Inverse folding.
């Protein structure tokens, strides 16, 4: 039986979240830190994101994904923070015992003072969509196609339809166009895009690629290689409308239909998961329901910008270091519940420490459940409105940040629950 290796802060995932968490943990006083990464290099998904648009908030300049990652990796090395790549974590227990395996080190077990979950997310596959048709070749997730083109140097096809208007799909529409591939259309089930407005303009409008809202793929054709798809318009209940079918010849279908936080390990550790975000339930210190286990980045909830991931991860790393070095693990139950009201989905954090509520500003992040114009966000403490914020436009494709200030509750009695809801102005 392998010896158990003690460590202060163990970070699972070497992408942007894990790198930022490691640096912050080091700055907060943790000396014994280790990053575990299953890929053969640090950097995570950023390695294949060769487009620009990263770093505007953190570095005040526009970088590609690899450039953004390289800056964090260089600083991790400069700080002497060790990492193990090609290492797969296979189990985490509620008492922070981590088991992993790698070719270089074999089976290892670590007893961590604190753990930061930074495993990122994965793409929703075809099997989750239930589209009828043969299992033709030429059907990829948008991220898989991005890896083929940007890292491996392969083109997925010559005529492409993209299902879903998530940011990866929008960016790949432009990338494939640059490579000489004809993008026939981007087809979106909802009456609005799930991507950032800037990506719709820069990746579709600038190249005359049609965005077909309130449409979906209803059939896949081709037994060996994909030969085409049938798309249909959908009604208000998102059901295909008979007679609206249209056949589009193509040899490739990319799926950009949502991301799912990678939380199998979190579940093994007994971490409570949020049914809406798919990620852990956390407090405002980003601690999960299991004391000493923290979560950040896309494993917690899917972000729009990597800069926001880095900021959030830095706080998770700092808090993990404080917990590990000081062993100040506070029970998650001593907190104010945060609830999503009408028009709001997927609030993070889901709990706020009671003392923090009246002493320190707390940032809440969430998405509106639909497109709204001239809306008002209302913060309620135990049913009593304490703050209102006007928003000119809200869209599910863009995360909303709301700062909860201590003076909102200066005259309030102890709060048991906060509710954030959206109403028309």
């Amino acid at each position: 039986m392998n010896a158990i290796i003690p460590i202060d802060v163990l970070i699972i995932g070497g992408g942007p979240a894990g790198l930022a968490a490691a640096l912050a943990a080091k700055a907060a006083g943790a000396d014994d830190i280790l990053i575990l990464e299953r890929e053969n290099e640090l950097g995570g998904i950023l390695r294949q994101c060769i487009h620009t648009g990263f770093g505007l908030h953190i570095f005040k300049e526009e970088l590609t994904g690899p450039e953004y990652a390289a800056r964090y990796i260089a600083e991790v090395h400069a700080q002497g923070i060790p990492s193990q790549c090609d290492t797969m974590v296979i189990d985490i227990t509620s008492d922070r015992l981590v088991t992993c395996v790698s070719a270089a080190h074999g089976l290892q077990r670590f007893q961590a003072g604190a753990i930061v979950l930074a495993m990122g997310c994965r793409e929703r596959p075809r099997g989750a969509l239930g589209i009828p048709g043969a299992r033709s070749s030429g059907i990829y997730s948008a991220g898989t196609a991005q890896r083929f083109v940007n890292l491996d140097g392969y083109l997925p096809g010559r005529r492409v339809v993209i299902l879903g208007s998530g940011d990866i799909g929008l960016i790949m529409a432009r990338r494939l166009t640059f490579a000489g591939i004809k993008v026939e259309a981007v087809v979106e089930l909802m009456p609005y895009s799930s991507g950032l407005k800037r990506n719709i303009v820069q990746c579709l409008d600038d190249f005359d690629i049609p965005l077909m809202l309130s449409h979906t793929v209803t059939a896949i054709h081709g037994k060996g290689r994909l030969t085409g798809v049938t798309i249909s318009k959908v009604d208000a209940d998102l059901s295909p409308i008979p007679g609206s079918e249209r056949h589009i010849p193509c040899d490739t279908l990319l799926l950009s239909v949502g991301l799912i936080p990678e939380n199998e390990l979190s579940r093994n550790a007994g971490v409570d998961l949020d049914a809406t975000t798919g990620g852990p339930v956390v407090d405002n210190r980003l601690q999960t329901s299991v004391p000493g286990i923290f979560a950040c980045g896309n494993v917690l909830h899917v972000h729009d910008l990597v800069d926001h991931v880095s900021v959030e991860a830095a706080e998770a790393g700092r808090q993990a270091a404080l917990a590990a070095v000081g062993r100040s693990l506070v029970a998650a139950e001593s907190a104010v519940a945060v609830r999503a009201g009408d028009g709001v989905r997927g609030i993070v954090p889901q709990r706020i420490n009671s003392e923090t509520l009246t002493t320190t500003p707390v940032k809440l992040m969430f998405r509106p459940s639909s497109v709204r114009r001239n809306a008002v966000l209302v913060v309620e403490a135990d049913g009593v409105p304490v703050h209102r914020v006007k928003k000119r436009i809200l869209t599910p494709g863009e995360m909303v940040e709301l700062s909860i200030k201590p003076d909102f509750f200066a005259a309030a009695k102890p709060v048991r629950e906060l509710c954030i809801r959206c109403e028309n102005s």
User: Anything to note?
Assistant: The chain has a mean pLDDT of 93.
